[in-house]
Amino acid sequence: MASSYSAIALKTIWIKECTRFLRIWVQTLVPPAITMTLYFIIFGSIVGERIGDMSGRPYMEFIVPGLIMMSVITNSYSNVASSFFSAKFQRNIEEMLVAPVSTPVIIAGYVGGGLARALIVAVIVTLVSFAFVENVSINHAGILVLTVILTSTLFSLAGLINAVYAKTFDDISIVPTFVLTPLTYLGGVFFSVSLLPGIWETVARFNPILYMVNAFRYGFLGVSDVDVGVALGVIIVFNLAFFATAYTLLQRGVGIRS
Amino acid sequence: MKALSIKNLRKTYKGGFEALKGIDLEVAEGDFFALLGPNGAGKSTTIGIISSLVNKTSGEVSVFGYDLDTQLVELKRQIGLVPQEFNFNQFETVRQIVVNQAGYYGVPREVAHERAEHYLKQLGLWDKRDAAARMLSGGMKRRLMIARALLHEPRLLILDEPTAGVDIELRRSMWDYLIEINKQGITIILTTHYLEEAETLCRNIAIIDQGAIVENTSVKRLLTTLNRETFVLDMSRNDEQRIEPQLEGFTMRQTDDHTIEVDVEKSQGLNKVFEQLSAQDIKVISMRNKANRLEELFVDLVERGRANKPAAGA
Ligand SMILES: Nc1ncnc2c1ncn2[C@@H]1O[C@H](COP(=O)(O)OP(=O)(O)OP(=O)(O)O)[C@@H](O)[C@H]1O
Ligand SMILES: [Mg+2]
């Protein structure tokens, strides 16, 4: 009984989340397509020509997986962060709090929404990349899919945690600006970390996004700066830690119950 | 069985404000119960705790026997909440809002759609089913929150000032609706500032002030303990002049040329008023009880309660 109630509640939250980002598709689905097109034109076509190969691949091909990953990260994060914060702000989060919806179901519902948006965006960006790259090969589809799902889940959880702490709309753009963007740029989207001088290559390895980008690139191109098993392990550990954090915060009612 | 039982409930908000100072309250199944109190008395805090929106500091709460601490899921199923402030997503449609709420309670989607039609029709919102919530008028938004609270068919409906900002006509139709669903067996608890509302609707009443219950009884008994009533008298005399009656032993105010208000103590009775007016050749055309008897009582009780307590901070 209880589990079928939970399944209905989960489905409800998920549908509501998907309805939300589809309703405002101009704000949620179009921008990543535009941004990525610009990246492809500037870094791929114009600058890329002069760079030549990276990790034994034409530069354009090299950056495709990283750019898809970058969109997946930003979109899953901002979907959950803005949706959950606005539910707090408009107080419709109370609709869930008064009902017998368990914390894991709330988390799963929101993460499911972030995941759906991230996957749709990933497909859009991949389609855009077809216009610029002749043959996008997929070497390990399983790892590709696993990485994209785990990464979207992770950043959906991160967005949720951010929204729990956020008190104003500004608070949900601080982390993307000051943490996510730098880590993504330094996470090997545009270059192989093996190009970094000595100590910096070691420093770069503390950046979790590096593992996601490389695992994903491995799925596409079959090349990676790091061991793929280690990369997946790192992503899974982060997922568990973020889930535990989100669970504890919501269970205690931080930021949502006085 | 008690629909609601609260024992020694306390709430201290972060920052140290003590909003509830040990409240005891029982509401019988099937009751129509009013929780009255001035602004800031602790009504919404109490309701917030019962409905899991506010964490209690200490005390016990149970709803139809289900304990808040140990049987939360079952407890939540019993309750439908109509909060004081609008708390739906302004961009969702009326139908989405009620259907989703039912979903959170585990009502299957097809059933939720059927019930949505039923309740939205009853509350006069069916025409607006596909309108975004922000397009509704204030009164419609209130009714939307009532529909939303009923979709999972709770046994206890709690309404926090449901008729705030609702015009008289709509208020009366909401009252009729609440009376109707109460007859069908739903226990109702309501907070209000409109004392007429409590007097018209409710059987039992608790008055709360500064986080403590100062009175808890039946509305009828409460009204009989009222030992002073105010009557409004319309008078006439043959000469059409301003009538200025003298009433010995009564407090009286003249409100216009032909109208007075007289405060009558229970012990005095009305005969003496009429005797004196007749003696002055004044005819009483009509007499009515001044509304808001409860209002006076309420002010009385709250003041009495405060007088018995040392001043805050002292
Ligand atoms: N989140 C909060 N943090 C701190 N104090 C609060 C909080 N919510 C309410 N209070 C305080 O608790 C007291 C009781 O508030 P509550 O909302 O329960 O009153 P109320 O009886 O519902 O009043 P009203 O009739 O105005 O709605 C008030 O003094 C209020 O300022
Ligand atoms: Mg209130």
UniProtKB/TrEMBL annotation, chain A:
Membrane topology: Multi-pass membrane protein
Family matches, as PROSITE patterns: ABC_TM2
Family in the record: Belongs to the ABC-2 integral membrane protein family.
Localisation per UniProt entry: Cell inner membrane; Membrane
An annotated Gene Ontology molecular function: ABC-type transporter activity
Keywords from the named record: Cell membrane, Membrane, Transmembrane, Transmembrane helix, Transport
Transmembrane regions listed in the UniProt entry: 21-42, 62-85, 105-132, 138-165, 177-200, 228-250
InterPro entries per UniProt: ABC-2_transport_permease, ABC2_TM, ABC2_TM_bact-type, ABC_2_transport
Keyword rRNA-binding carried by entry: no
GO annotations of cellular component type: ATP-binding cassette (ABC) transporter complex
Record's protein name: Transport permease protein
Domain ABC transmembrane type-2: 23-253
Pfam families: ABC2_membrane
UniProtKB/TrEMBL annotation, chain B:
Entry keyword annotation includes Coiled coil: no
Domain of life: Bacteria
Keywords: ATP-binding, Nucleotide-binding, Transport
Any one Pfam family match given in the protein's UniProt record, by short name: ABC_tran
Gene3D superfamilies listed in its UniProt record: P-loop containing nucleotide triphosphate hydrolases
GO function terms (MF aspect): ATP binding; ATP hydrolysis activity
Domain (ABC transporter) ranges: 4-235
Protein name: ABC transporter
InterPro entries: AAA+_ATPase, ABC_transporter-like_ATP-bd, ABC_transporter-like_CS, ABC_transporter_ATP-binding, P-loop_NTPase
SMART domains linked to this entry: AAA (SM00382)
Alphabetical list of PROSITE patterns matching this protein: ABC_TRANSPORTER_1, ABC_TRANSPORTER_2
Lineage: Bacteria, Pseudomonadati, Pseudomonadota, Gammaproteobacteria, Alteromonadales
